[in-house]
Amino acid sequence: MTMRAFITGISGPDLTDAERAFIREFRPWGFILFKRNVQSPAQVTALVQELRNCAGRADAPVLIDQEGGRVQRLGPPHWPAYPAGVVFDRLYDLDSSAGLRAGWLSARLIADDLHKLGITVDCLPLADVPIAGADAVIGDRAYGTTPAKVAAIARAVTEGLEQGGVLPVLKHIPGHGRATADTHFRLPTVDTPEAELDATDFAAFKPLADLPMAMTAHVVFSAIDAAHPATTSATMIQRVIRERIGFQGLLMSDDVSMNALAGSLAERTRAIVAAGCDMVLHCNGNLDEMQAVAAETPELAGQALIRADRALAARKAPTSFDRGAARAELDALINRLGPASA
Length: 342
Prior knowledge:
Helix content: 40-55%
InterPro entries: GH, Glyco_hydro_3_AS, Glyco_hydro_3_N, Glyco_hydro_3_N_sf, NagZ_Beta-hexosaminidase
Shape: globular
Radius of gyration: 19 Å
CATH superfamily: Glycoside hydrolase, family 3, N-terminal domain
EC number: 3.2.1.52
Pfam families: Glyco_hydro_3
Keywords: Glycosidase, Hydrolase
Family: Belongs to the glycosyl hydrolase 3 family.
CATH topology: TIM Barrel
CATH class: Alpha Beta
Distance between the termini: 47 Å
Largest sheet: 9 strands, parallel
Strand order of the largest sheet: 7-6-3-2-1-14-13-10-8
Number of helices: 12
Number of domains: 1
C-alpha cells in the first residue's frame, strides 16, 4: 500500500468523519497523540486501533511525546508521573550507574504503559546539550551539560524503550541546547563556531547515530548555513546529520506548524522534503493545515521508504518485566536526591 511521507495529529479523543476521510484519502505513514487525544486507557487503545484501521495498516506507527517531567502526554490519574531528565543527570553526578539505571527504569516503565495502549513510538531520548542563557524550552528535560553524560543517559533511555517494545526517536538533531528561543514561537540562531559545535552539540548525537529515527531542530547554525534552520537546510542534513554525525535512520522534521519556520504550510512542507527530511511531522490536528501539508507531501518512496521500513522492523517484542519492582527501584533511586528531587 502506498503512503505519503508525513505523520499527522488529530483534533480530539475520537476521530471525526472528516478525519477518517482525510486519512483514507492521504494515507499518512503514521500518527502522533497529544493530551487533547487522551482520556482513559480504554479510549486511547480504541483510538489507536481505529487510526490503524483507517490507515489500512496494522503496523502504522503511533507516536507520542512521553518524556516525563513537564513533557508527558499521559499522566495521572490513569498513568504515573515520571521524572524529568534532570533527575537522571543529578543521580549520575552522585553515582553514574544510578543515573543510568534510573534512566533505563523510567523508560522501561513508560514503554510498558505505551505498549499496553498499542503506541509503538516514543519521541525520546533527547541528546540536546543546554548551555547557560539558553531558552528554557529544553532546560530540565536535558540529561546534562556534557556530551558524554548526555549520550550515556540517552543510550540507557533508548534501551529501556526498546526492551519494552517501543521505538525511540532521537531529538532534536543536531542539537537544540544552545537555542535562545522556543521554536514554537520564533526561530533561534546559534552563532557558535563549527569546531565548537562539533565538540559539544554534535558530539552528543554521534554515539546515538544508530537509532532508527530522529527529529530535527528548527535552529539556524550560522557557521554552517546562515539562511536556513536545520530542518530545511540540505547542508545541515547532508553534511552534519548524515555525514558528520553519521545518522542513517529515518529523519523526521519537528512540527511543521511551529512559528520558527517561515512561509505557508505548503512552502514549509516543500522545503522540508527538498532539504532531505524523510518525513514531515504535523501536530496540531487542524484539518485545514493537515490537508495543506498532505497535499505537498510526496509518496513515501526510495531511500525514505527503505529507512521507514527499516525503522519499523527494528521494533522488538518486550522482554519480561516486573513492573512493581521496577517502580520501587526507580523511586528508591530518586529518593537518594532528597525532597527537592520531585
